[in-house]
Amino acid sequence: MRHGKKINHLGRKTAHRHSMLANMACSLVEHKRINTTVAKAKALKQFVEPLVTKSKEDTTHNRRLVFAKLRQKDAVAELFRTVAPKVGDRPGGYTRIIKLGNRLGDNADMAMIELVDFNELYNAGKATKKKSTRRSRRGSGSSAAAAPAAKAAPAKAEKEAKKEEE
Question: What pTM was computed for the model?
């Protein structure tokens, strides 16, 4: 009976499987999306998501835990530097698996696994949050006077273009 044995061994020994998942996770962090088989994508999802959760809190302990799994310093730095701030408010589900069809050579089910917040096509409709910064009063006089003039210039150009068309 296989009670409680949920892990997919992917036809590999333990050390080979861990090395393969670590390499795939590093590639995913570096390129933000990779193509692989569906079974490997599902195994990679279970491998990567806890690492991304750990990266949301940048402590030395979490960096060491993630480095123990990934084993590449550049990938750990990329994960903590660029990926973690983008997924900071997301409670989970950092990756998306999209099925691509079958591979020509051996008819294996292929899939694309990607980091959710790095896909510009799906995030095009959502408004990006603008960071509010505190500004000093010294420089506000010149920028405040230039702002209305900059807004008025495109409006005048549009009106003139309409008159010329008529």
Answer: 0.73
